[in-house]
Design brief:
Length: about 120
Amino acid sequence: VQVVESGGGSVQSGGSLRLSCQASGYTASRYCMAWFRQGSGEEPQFVSSINTDGTTIYGDSVKGRFTVSLNNAENTLYLQMNSLKPEDTAMYYCRLGFACDYYFERGPGTQVTVSS
């Protein structure tokens, strides 16, 4: 199983980015994928999750600004990030799980930097 993120970059405050996460080598019909982020010197923070039933959960700091989606057929997770703030700066990584409380794989991450 492999999980790889893409789409990070540098934007100004108020800008948008779309992250992608491709999971390969996993063929279960039911699973959960999630985004986490970790700023420099900080603890990992939950961003958002979605399962194959379409149930989504968002962290309080991103509600109303970020949208998670899942292309089940392609095992690809997306995160549309709008109205970005400098405090969104972090390494964003996705996780794959049997359920949204049981992750077993993560990707290396993609850096998002938001300047003021």
